[in-house]
Amino acid sequence: MLPEKKLKIAVIGLGYVGLPLARLFATKYPVVGFDINQNRINGLNAGSDATLEVSDEVLKAVLVDKPSENNGLYCSATLSDIEGCNVYIVTVPTPVDKNNRPDLTPLYKSSETVGKVLKKGDIVIYESTVYPGVTEEECVPVLERVSGLKFNVDFYAGYSPERINPGDKEHTVEKILKVTAGSTPEIGKVVDELYKSVIIAGTHLAPTIRVAEAAKVIENSQRDINIAFVNELAKIFNLMNIDTHAVLEAAGTKWNFLPFKPGLVGGHCIGVDPYYLAQKAQEYGYHPEIILAGRRLNDSMGQYVAAQVVKCMIKKDIPVNNAKILMLGITFKENCPDVRNTKIVDVIAALEDYGTSVTIYDPWANPAEVKHEYNLICHPEPVEGERFDAIILGVAHKEFLNLNLDQLKKDKAIVYDVKGILPECDSKL
Questions:
Q1: Which residue, 124, 157, 367, 370, is the most exposed by fewest CB within 10 angstroms?
Q2: Res 3: pLDDT
Q3: How many angstroms separate the CA atoms of 262 and 168, rounded?
Q4: What is the pTM of this model?
């Protein structure tokens, strides 16, 4: 069993989840971070994290220049570099396809990768958000097929769902309590002790992997439903000409009122995870009405915001066709470069359907990534000399709070505040 030998950890996938985890484990164990993106590996080995989750100083403090038996992090895209590891932690994304069906392709491929180097006694731990059963019913068979080893005889599995909050420098990985689980009670204790050795917030050992998988997927489903509720409230109160944010502030004076705010629900978690649970429920013959209703409402908010902007323009006699609109922000959340599944693109698409021309300014987003993902042009600086018929605050980046909007507005221009943070605007969500 692993406790009898020195642990050497491989983290598969060095994105927003994998890199912070690999960095943390590297303070106490020898770690190899593996990623198929060679450009990503080159950047990390140079001491720079493009996701901005780990500072250059913190990253450089744990980097080593070759796989070692000593503590430290070596980043590689070469399979042979993870052969000597005995704990494999998979942190790849779990997206949905264009029809909002779970896409397990990254999990299958990473399981094949691990299977090629898996040895007797090794443990494979998954952190990716999935529906209950994926680890043991989908991933383990791939490990068995590729490795030729037998599950819970030759190798073992664990699950510890990621709880990374991109862009959050306060609630970092070691400060968030971690749920753990193992494929046997004994392995569960091994996995729990492993995480407990670096997670200062502590751990919670779930009785089974399926329980841990279910716990993770309902965390974000719960948030999605609550946000859908306040989004619906925003629609109702806007019809009544009542300030939704003022209503929520007043209601929030009660000790047990949940402080959710209306907004666009994107990103790799809240806007995706409910579909994983819904898919599994439907396989059991149950149609999850509340979960899918929340998804439908939240997915409609981009079109709603665009319609509200156009409504404000018409009230000010601003011609909509060929109007110039400035979109402030395209990332899925504030002070973070992550553009995955951002719902700002839904607003832009709807506005372009109205015949407007949209300019995007985001100091956090990578213009090349925005172009690749959405075929949109994103400016890292305000466009010199341009003035706009409408300005939309889509993302609450700190840079936008000090932006002089008057210099960007035409005479009758409107300002629409999706996030409800501007001191003055024509309308807000």
A1: 367
A2: 53
A3: 20
A4: 0.91
